[in-house]
Amino acid sequence: MAAYSAPQFDAPLLARLRAIFDRHAGPDRKWNKEQVEAFFHHIQADSNNPQQQPEILDKGGLGFDQFVRYMTSPAAEALAPAPAAQQDLSWPLHSYFVSSSHNTYLEGNQLTSDASTEAYRTVLLRGCRCVEIDVWDGGERFTDALDDEAAAENVEGGGEEGLAPAEAAGEKVGFRMRTMMKVSGWVADKLLNEKGKRDMAEIQQNWGKMVAAEPRVLHGHTLTKEISFRDVCQTVKECAFQTSDLPVVVSLEVHCSPPQQEMMVAIMEEIWGDHLLPPVELEAMERVAPSPAELRNKILVKVKYVPPKEGRGGDGEDDNAVEDTEGLEGIEGLEPEEGAPAKQQAKPPKIIAILSRLGIFTRGVSFKAMEQAEAEMPHHIFSLSEAMVDDTHQQAAGQFFAHNKRFLMRCYPAGTRVDSSNPDPAGHWRKGIQFAALNWQTWDRGLMMNDAMFDGSVGYVLKPDGYRGLKPGDEGDAGSEPAIPHRTLHHFSVHVLAVQNLPLPPDVRDSDGLHPYLTMGLSVEPHPLGTTKREPYKARTKTQQGVNPDFAQEVLSFANIEGVTPELSFVVFQVWDDRPGLDPVMAGACLRLDRMKSGYRFIRLMDSQGVATDSIILVKIEKKMS
Hints:
- The chain has four domains: about 10-75, Recoverin, domain 1 (Orthogonal Bundle), CATH 1.10.238; about 95-140 and about 215-335 and about 350-460, TIM Barrel; about 140-210, no CATH class; about 485-625, C2 domain (Immunoglobulin-like).
- By secondary structure, the protein is α/β, with parallel strands linked by helices.
- It is elongated.
- The protein has 15 helices and 21 strands.
- It is an enzyme of class 3 (hydrolase).
């Protein structure tokens, strides 16, 4: 959460505050002690929570200046502090929702945007605790491993475009050079005597020292630009534990050949060092996963699990058969045809054992069905696309939810979201999924909900009662587990008084040309064991004008909504510019329903790119729930 900055009020909003104060004041335009207590008890609903009581409650009376000071203090913010119970870090890993990223390396859309290490830096410093790396074979490049003299002996006259050894370092090995070495090796094997073969073997050994091919990171089968796997690992190390010491999960999608996988392991071990967990015989471990508190400053590698008997090559499957086409399904020409014979489909690369062994508490397993044997394997993690999540939940909602009480699951956006848009993660959390991976480069409703879920946390939020099993060591059986919350939201209303300092869109120079209106959406997912979907409840204000619009206490409200879990329900506010056929979003905010305080409050707005602004909304919030 950003450091608190007290708002400065312009004249229109100050007038609104004056009207609120006068409405509750006596003839002398002041509040006596009884009026102060009545306001904070009946309207602000703060008097029952000592942590939220402002200091002015201890005073005998209240003047307007003191009221304004209260309204500029954190006590008047609409967002309540994160509940302490949700920050209990002593439960097993699968008992938490974890702030997660999808295709973390991308700066924009899924087809043509650049990859960047800065994308990893950005999400980690914003509190993300699960990043994704898609790894592919890298091209050979000249190195500076040999001194100039040795390099000169081996590349004299052979460097592409006549490059000198020093100039060749870091350059890609050209087609001519690669062909020459391959043909030379073939000729030596077929035509030369034993001494000639030994000489050629020595040349090829020196060649191996002169060139190197390190894995690269990119979105395969697209026009996205690549970055170095080594650079990504270095950035993860630098940023992983700056904002939190809780574990970071690195989800590997591996497309590399076995030699490049060996290099991946060497790079991770070299750079991450003690941040990696030591090798463990999992069969000898207890079945329950450790807690986030026990994994502080650790990097957990999520990678395809290969049983030890499979040896070097693994079982021929990818990290997850579904996940290795992650981001590609639904894009014509980039995925195997449905029903095509197995021999015609591209066979995914094998995962070597030394890479697989890095996945200790996050052993990736290909998802086929809830009944598969691996669904009970200790420390496994399934990865499903949003479409497969919906399909599987429709078929076996009870099994799906029960599985996620004891084991990890990750879901990711559909491949048809080529614009890097996001689904609403609340639907995935409501099904018990721990890692709802999102495209952090796109600030839309989905990412707004993610920000609201983890605001004020350390990237891990304990699931509500009913969404996790019993804590290890607790007495009792499954029948003693808490029930899934089922509450009714009888009344929820937001009185919109005024907005201040709206950010002007780039194409609007005159504030008089701005015609804002406010929408409010309430995302309340249905019961996790049900299969019916519930669309967000929506309401909007009338259109106003200018950057400081007065909405005249217009009321947006919803009533009698059943099956509510407040910790997994979200209120999304968005300010739009009313234009024919356009209606661009200017600013927005999202708050978790359980953390919205009642009474007269301020809501801080982000701009359309998710950047904090000095724009605020003055509202009056009323809610009644049983």
